[in-house]
Amino acid sequence: MFFSPAPAQPLPLAELHMHIEGSLEPEMLLRLARRNAVSLPTEDLETLRGRYKFDDLQSFLNLYYESMRVLRTERDYTELADAYLERAARAGVVRAEIFFDPQTHLENGIPLDVVFNGLSASLDSARERFGVSADLILCVERHRGPEAAERVLREALEFRDRFIGLGMDSAEVGYPPAPFKPVYDIARAEGLHLVAHAGEEAGPDYIWQALDVLGVERIDHGVRALEDPALVDRLVAEQIPLTVCPLSNVSLKVFRELGHHTLPEMIGRGLMVTINSDDPAYFGGYLDDNFAALRGELGIDEETVARLAENSIRASFAPEAEKAGWLAQIAAARGADA
Ligand code: ADE
Ligand code: ZN
User: What is the pTM of this model?
Assistant: First the structure.
């Protein structure tokens, strides 16, 4: 073994798939609801926690979008991001590429400048305060359709220097990637990085479309890629990163239990996999909790953990010089334990 089961000094990790709204812990939800006079179905913490059980992606999204109503002011967004970054730093995260869902905030009456100002106030000083380099990826919500996606992207371009990429999330089945091509073409022309959720609940065809029609650089989730050998060959040949979220997959019943997760097979097939928390407040934990579960329930060994850490850094959109420094730290930790 390279490292002790719970390393005192965690390896540098990049978290590439997390939704900032999905880090809204029940305690903060209650606090913000009171502060902003937003009524909730319950104000009892334990009853609230009891609602965090899901049958599938849609049952989660219903609660996730409902909870976002408590976010009203710049301060709320700053506190939300601060809490995530502080917790992520303790998990070893040195780089965070953070999704946010502006369409729901707009629908809740929150203008884009409030969202951007609030999040930026946290992210811009995250390196000094938490040792985390952090950037935003704007997600369009696929259930609202491509025209609405194009509208919000164009509106957000006023804040072009505040985000580095475009992603696509929300309900997957029935909302294939291809119709969003015009939105991704606009983002590409703006020099934004391109990613998309695909192959979480829907099949490999959605991953093909994300690659070939949208031209994405990474696939978020992608666990259903294994069903299509030609797709696996393509993903392996081009080393296209798949941002896998193990605890999320179990919570949303993509896999019945962690022991049934196909992560070991994905790694064994040579896919470029990274580990992520997705919506840590809803799915039972942050990045270190995901790794602990992989060690404990899937028997992932420390050499594989180090490879996953390396993958996360390589797959990130951080500047190359910064990536080289973190990769050197991982190499040094491996050397020290070999
Ligand atoms: N929005 C937040 N989490 C999501 C997920 N796991 N899949 C799709 N949309 C999401
Ligand atoms: Zn996600």
Answer: 0.96
